[in-house]
Amino acid sequence: MTQHRYLLTEDRIPERWYNIAADLPTPMPPPLAPDGSPISPDMLSAIFPMELIMQEVSQDRFIPIPDPVREMLALWRPTPLYRAVNWEKALGTNCRIFYKYEGVSPAGSHKPNTSVPQAYYNAQAGVKRLSTETGAGQWGSSLSMACQLFGIECKVYMVRVSYDSKPYRRLMMETWGGECVASPSMDTNSGRAILEKDPNSTGSLGVAISEAVEDAATRDDTNYSLGSVLNHVLLHQTVIGQEAIEQMKMAGAEPDVVIGCAGGGSNFAGISFPFLAEKFAGKEIRVLAAEPAACPTLTRGHYGYDFGDVAGLTPLLPMHTLGHSFMPAAIHAGGLRYHGMAPLVSHLVNTGLVEARAYHQGECFAAAINFSRTEGIIPAPESSHAIRAVEQEVEQAREEGVSRTILFNLSGHGNFDMAAYEAYLSGQMTDYELPQSELDEAAAELQGMPAVGG
Ligand SMILES: Cc1ncc(COP(=O)(O)O)c(C=O)c1O
Fold first, then answer.
1. So where are the chain's domains?
2. Whose CA is nearest to atom 4 of ligand 1?
3. pLDDT tens per residue across span 154-179
4. Does 184 sit in the ligand 1 pocket, CB within 6 Å?
5. Which residue of 23, 370, 396, 417 sits 20 to 30 Å from the alpha carbon of 195, by its own alpha carbon?
6. How many A from CA of 9 to the centre of ligand 1?
7. Per-residue pLDDT averaged across 265-278, rounded?
8. Is the CB of 264 under 6 A from ligand 1?
9. d(C-alpha 272, C-alpha 240), whole Å
10. The domain made up of 67-108+232-439 is a member of CATH 2.30.110.10
11. Is the CB of residue 261 below 6 angstroms from any atom belonging to ligand 1?
12. Using CA atoms, how far apart are residues 206 and 224, in angstroms rounded to an integer?
């Protein structure tokens, strides 16, 4: 029997994170204060511990992972890498498809790779409580677990549409000792303002971020924690790609294409940044981000400065954005419903080092079901976008008459997303055609924002 699962022993958990900022061929535009002036690390210290702020602005290529963090990561890392032989057969392809599986973490996704170090650094700094937002609930549950592991409290603002459709995610947070409220909530000024305008608001990540930032900024004992987008979050996720490089070596293969789904960009960065380091060093590797057509930040968004949240409480970030008040349709991939994108990922797309494609949810679920029927694992709705992108790569290779080696990140399992699968299987799932007028409306608010490089 041939083995198609590549496992690393515990001592192979990476000892350092890879900081792509050190290797970028062109420098990143800086974040700006809400009034457009330069931002200093000090300004962030109201809501973040200094260690994370230093990581956010670091230009060091490698940053050591503290031992207590590696010990916690060892609860589930290193994660397995598989070759999808059964799926390859079903697709009738001569391409080789590999996937790194992040769903083996206790929360079921890649998110604990950063919730653990974030909770650790905050606990070290004497912070007693963290506030955060969550879309599908993966991040909120991951942070609740990590806070519990390091003995601090956790308050989660969960986007209303997911709060209603994914009750088990809320219960996971509560099981791990976190407190979870539906966002918009009555607990913050930002939440109350939205509810006043629209009492039936289904919420968005942008709204939930405003609530969580306000919570942290108005309480002395509380810091804010973000599950994606920021440089330090992407940095923490690079354990994924570093392990994958070793495992691909074990498999005797090198990827021609590396694929991840992108909501705020963190799992995509995690799998791809270590491979991009190889690309910078001369290897031929294509890197592809897959996003939802209903929230097409990278493929149809504007590249410029925008707020990370609806209320305009965050710094201005240089990124692809649909406008900070853009309300994405209630697609099932809750973790991909974000108006912006990680500045690092945006910069890489803008400079042509990373490609992006958008897919409708129906085609993604069809792909995820084919995958689950051959490989067993039921993918998270977010991850299904990467799976659809792999199918398209396979088709393209067939048309060109070539064989490629494809690696993708299976960012999480969908075991708590069965309502989404039910919608698909019962024929109730619809695709959302986002009209240009809706994008134009949301983008109008970007006029007057500083231009990147301007
Ligand atoms: C399983 C899974 N994949 C992907 C994402 C998207 O986030 P990011 O782009 O930061 O990886 C999420 C977000 O909640 C998620 O839960």
1. 67-108+232-439
2. 382
3. 999 999 988 998 899 999 999 999 99
4. no
5. 417
6. 26
7. 98
8. yes
9. 9
10. no
11. yes
12. 14
